[in-house]
Each structure stands twice: as C-alpha cells, then as structure tokens.
Amino acid sequence: MSEAVAESSAPADTGDLVAVPRTHYGRWVGALVVVVFLGWLGYAFAHAAIDWGVVKEYLTMSVLLKGLLITLVLTVVGMILGIVLGVLVAVMRLSRNPVTSGVGWLYVWVFRGTPVYLQLLAWFNIGLLFPYVSLPGLGGARTVDLVTPFVAAAIGLGLNQGAYTSEVVRAGILSIDEGQTEAAQALGMSRLRTMGQIVLPQAMRVILPPIGNETIGMLKTTSLASAIGVSEILSEAQHIYFVNNRIMELLIVCAVWYLAAVSILSIVQYYLERHFARGSSSRALPATPLQRLRKTLQQKKAVS
C-alpha cells in the first residue's frame, strides 16, 4: 500500500524541459512607433526652412559666447547664495526658538510665494524706496550705482532659490535618525558641530539630487534676467534676430548651448551623488560610464 502511494505521488517523467523566452510584442510595437516618430521628426527638421549655415556661423559668435558666460556666472552666484541661505534657513526652521523658526518660515513664505519675475523687478527698482545706501567706512552711495542689473538679478535669483533650497535641506536633515544627534550631544558635541559633522554629511545623499535639479532650473531661469537689462545669451540672441530676422536659427543656437551646459551639470551631479552615496548602502555602486568603457576596451583587447 505504501509503495502504491509513493508511486502515485512521484512526479511524472516530462523529459527535458526547454525554457522558451516570452515574446513581448508590445515592446517591439512601442519601439517601432518611437523609431518611426523620431525618423519623421528628423526628416521634418532636415527639410524645414532653417539655414543651418547661419546656425553654424552664430554658434561661436563672440557676443553670444559672452552672453553664455554671463548666464553661467549668474547661475553659479545665484546657486551659491541660494545654498548658503537654504542651509541657514533650514537650520532656523528646525530651531526650538519660536522666533528663529518663525523668521525662517516667513522667509520661505514670502520668497516661495511670489514669482521670481516679480522679485527681479523689485530688486531692480529698489532705488525707488532707498535712493541712497550708507556703507560703513565708505560713506553714502546711490543705490542705482550699487544695485546694477547683474547684482539685482543675482540677489533676486539667490533669495528665491534659498527659499526652495531650505525645504530640500530641511527634508534631508529630517531624514537622518535623531539617535545620531542625541549620541553626538551625549559625547559633548555642540548642536552646530553635530549639524556640520554628523547630520549634513549624511543628509547630502538626500539633498544632492533635488539640488542638482534646482541648479539646472536656475540655469534656465537666468533668461528672466533679460527683463531688467542683463545681457545673458538669450537676450543677446534676441538683439541679433530683431535685426536680421533669423529667429529660429538664433533660438537653435541658444538651445545648443543650454543643452551643452545642462549636460555638463548633469555629469557633475552624477559624480557628486556617487561620491556621497559611498558607504550608505551594502550594495556595490554601479560602474561609471568611464569604467564601463574601460572594461569594454579591455575585453575586446583580451579577445583579440
């Protein structure tokens, strides 16, 4: 009886099983649709009324390159001011002092709640409220001489960015376990030292991705500075095509330089995120593009 039960429970002999990969027809159809669309888009641009010779000519024009430099400098200055203010305001908002946290909240409410375009115009016309500014040791000076269009744009963009950055930094700080702060304070570390040496270095892996996106956004937002007379790249391009009527060609030139700058910023962001991600997970970090390229070349060399 037991032998019969054993024979009935034994699996049937099915022979060698062959694993057949599933055919994903939807993926192939989707890929075909994308390829056809890209082909149509490339064909449309290739036969559009665009003088690519003009694009090539203006791509390295000194006036546009100077405007690009101003765009990059304005981006760097605005982000530095925004990051410094963002960290300061984030710490203020997390303070147990109601006055300090309230001032931090008010700053975020004002500068995040009003358009950056409005803020640029306000800083550009600040001389209407304060015609003269007294500087310690330098005496008085006219506000319009101090707050030039570039300075007004840097202040406006930096203050606006600081409001958004403070929320990013605050979220990063709150993502760190409070036990580490308590342990550091138990060892006699001050609150400021704990924040600078324990909390913020760990919070960077949470803070960096949105800060990188904000930097790319800042690069594009600098185009609004043309409203107050800053000669950034898009403003210079407009000055040119108002004369020669090569509107699309000049806009394509600006797009090329914007994409180039964004690509460089994306690479920097990638390696910064990779640097601060070390030791944060048990998983090994993925290979960088350069490491993958080096590995591929070594494999080809070994085969040959």
Characterization of this structure:
- With 304 residues, the protein is mostly helical.
- It has a single domain (53-277), classed as Orthogonal Bundle (MetI-like fold), CATH 1.10.3720.10.
- The chain is built from 13 helices and 2 strands, in the order ααααααββααααααα.
- The protein has a two-stranded antiparallel ribbon.
- A hairpin with a 3-residue loop joins strand 1 and strand 2.
- The radius of gyration is 29 Å and the shape is flat.
- The mean pLDDT is 84.
Strand percentage: under 5%
Share of helix among residues? over 70%
How are the strands ordered across the major sheet?
A: 1-2
Name the helix and strand elements from N-terminus to C-terminus, one letter apiece: HHHHHHEEHHHHHHH
What's the CATH H-level superfamily name?
Answer: MetI-like
Shape: flat
Which CATH architecture?
A: Orthogonal Bundle
- The CATH topology: MetI-like fold
Round the mean pLDDT to the nearest integer and report it. 84
CATH class group: Mainly Alpha
Largest sheet geometry: 2 strands, antiparallel
- Rounded to the nearest angstrom, the radius of gyration is 29 Å
How many strand units? 2
Structural class: mainly alpha
Q: Count the DSSP helices.
A: 13
Distance between the termini: 65 Å
Count of structural domains: 1
